[in-house]
């Protein structure tokens, strides 16, 4: 077992590693074999307060630091990740049940986003705007918001913590990070350790490992953070948004999805099968952008279905530490039970199981369902597991209607021999992102990432990250004399 699980099983507050003072412990388990990885005494409301106050104290000096000096911290953090990549991979496999393929995918994206954060330190630009008043100079400054609270999920915790933490810091803010209780090391203290070793001043980044059963809404209600960046379910996201609005905080919400991959009648079927299988089953389907629904034109449905099912049957299920494994465990038994229950209900409603995977502890084998009744609940919900829904349609108009028939609007893809036909199709879909002749699972440092409808509020990446973690300040200078009417 990696020493990370002993050395980093602590809170990180005001530049110090210490135990929480809560009355109970979060137990960190390996979801594949049930091995106890770590025991972490939870942080209390008082420690959340200490973390935010530390971030506020440290932020003022950090914001005044030359951005070129700030940039050096992120350059070193990137080198540290590269040097420790093998160790971090082991920790991702153990704590998340992520496969080698998944760990490599997550680390590749994390490094790309960290490279972008290096540039973000120099990105904010001011403006001088014209005035209708003679002698007036309008200066528009781009300044840090102050302190950002980050709540990260369990599925890609290293990437999705870094994706908010690194740019918020690069732009001159302090940060308090609350990782998911199932991934406290990868999503929390590991991130803190990397930045500590990279020379980030103490107090700027704090990690509180805790649970809402202990702290309630204290993390999002606290008066210090001006922005809360939350990644998770739409149910929790709705609550976060409501509480933040009542406390005049801005939010960035990256929530769930029910994405569709659409195969039109002129598509390259073999390529579409490859894209669909990856988009549905990567990391056991525990991806917000995963293709829950695979829509296929009826004229090619038989051939596509045969090839899709054949490929799904080849996916190796088992120990995520085996480099050949494609499907490892889901994060916990509650998730496994939820997935299995949703499949059982769909079959009871009349769906046909072309592949019916068994559930053993947290290992959920792939399932492929078809012939789903139009009113089946599973068609409109997010399935955070290895279950594909095959749906046939007659013509593009029906496909558009089916794709949009969901409360979510995150990602999606369409396959066609005619690129412009694909773009025209994509424009009709109510999502924040859509891809032509590709998979549904994509994230890039410069392209705005986010959803519509119940899939979230706001965007991250590139300039939208600058918008999220800074604010604008107008300072005017009157070089002449103003006229006052009294």
Structure description:
The protein is of the alpha/beta class and 486 residues long. Helix content is 38%, strand content 21%. It is built from 16 helices and 24 strands. The protein has helices at residues 4-7, 45-64, 67-83, 85-96, 100-120, 157-170, 185-197, 212-215, 218-221, 234-246, 269-281, 301-312, 333-348, 396-404, 419-426, 463-469, and strands spanning 11-13, 16-18, 25-29, 36-41, 127-129, 136-144, 147-151, 174-178, 205-207, 227-231, 250-254, 259-263, 291-297, 352-355, 359-360, 363-364, 367-370, 387-393, 408-409, 412-415, 435-436, 452-453, 456-457, 470-478. The strands form seven sheets. It has a seven-stranded mixed β-sheet with strand order 14-17-18-13-12-20-21, with helices on both faces. A six-stranded mixed β-sheet has the order 9-8-7-10-11-23, with helices on both faces. The longest helix is centred in the first third of the chain and has 21 residues, at 100-120. The chain starts with a helix and ends in an 8-residue tail after the last strand.
Gross morphology:
globular
What is the residue-mean pLDDT, rounded to a whole number?
97
Low-confidence stretches: none
Number of strands: 24
Q: How big a fraction of the residues is strand?
A: 15-25%
- Can you summarize the main beta sheet? 7 strands, mixed
Straight-line N-to-C gap: 76 Å
Task: Classify the helix fraction into a percent range.
Answer: 25-40%
**Structural class of the helix and strand makeup?**
alpha/beta
Core attributes:
seven-stranded mixed beta sheet; 486 residues
């Amino acid at each position: 077992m990696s020493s990370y699980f002993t050395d980093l099983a602590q809170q990180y507050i005001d530049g110090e590693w210490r135990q929480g003072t809560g009355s109970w412990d979060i137990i960190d388990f390996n979801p594949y074999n049930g091995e106890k990885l770590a025991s972490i005494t939870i942080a209390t409301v008082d420690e959340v307060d200490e973390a935010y106050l530390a971030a506020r104290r440290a932020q003022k000096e950090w914001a005044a630091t030359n951005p070129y000096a700030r940039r050096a911290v992120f350059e070193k953090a990137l080198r540290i990740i590269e040097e420790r990549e093998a160790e971090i991979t082991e920790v991702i496999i153990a704590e998340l049940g992520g496969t080698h393929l998944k760990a490599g995918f997550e680390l590749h994206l994390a490094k790309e986003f960290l490279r972008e954060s290096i540039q973000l330190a120099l990105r904010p630009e001011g403006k001088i705007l014209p005035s209708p008043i003679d002698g007036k100079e309008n200066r528009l400054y781009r300044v840090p918001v102050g302190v950002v609270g980050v709540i990260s999920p369990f599925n890609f915790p290293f990437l999705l913590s870094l994706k908010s933490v690194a740019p918020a810091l690069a732009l001159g803010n302090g940060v308090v990070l609350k990782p998911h209780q199932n991934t406290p090391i990868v999503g929390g203290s590991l991130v803190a350790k990397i930045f500590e070793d990279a020379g980030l001043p103490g107090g700027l980044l704090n990690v509180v490992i805790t649970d809402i059963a202990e702290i309630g809404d204290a993390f999002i209600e606290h008066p210090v953070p001006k922005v809360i960046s939350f990644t998770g379910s739409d149910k929790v996201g709705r609550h976060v948004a409501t509480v933040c609005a009542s406390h005049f905080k801005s939010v960035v919400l990256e929530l769930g999805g029910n994405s569709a991959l659409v195969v039109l009648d002129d598509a390259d079927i073999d390529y579409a099968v490859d894209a669909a299988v990856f988009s549905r089953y990567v990391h056991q389907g525990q991806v917000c952008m995963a293709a829950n629904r695979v829509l296929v034109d009826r004229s090619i449905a038989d051939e596509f279905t045969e090839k899709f099912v054949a490929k799904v049957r080849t996916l190796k299920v088992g120990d995520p530490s085996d480099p050949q494994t494609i499907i490892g465990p889901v994060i916990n038994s509650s998730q496994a039970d939820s997935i299995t229950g949703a499949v059982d209900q769909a079959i009871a409603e009349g769906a046909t199981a072309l592949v019916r995977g068994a559930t053993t502890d947290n290992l959920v084998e792939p399932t492929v369902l078809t012939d789903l009744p139009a009113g089946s609940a599973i068609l409109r919900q997010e399935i955070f597991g290895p279950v594909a829904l095959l749906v046939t349609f007659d013509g593009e108009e029906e496909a558009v209607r089916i794709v949009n028939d969901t409360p979510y609007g995150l990602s999606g893809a369409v396959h066609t021999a005619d690129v412009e036909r694909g773009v025209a199709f994509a424009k009709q879909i109510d999502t924040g992102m859509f891809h032509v002749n590709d998979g549904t699972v994509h994230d890039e440092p410069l392209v705005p990432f986010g959803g519509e409808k119940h899939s979230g509020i706001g965007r991250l990446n590139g300039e939208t990250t600058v918008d999220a973690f800074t604010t604008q300040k107008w300072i005017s200078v009157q070089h002449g004399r103003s006229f006052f009417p009294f």
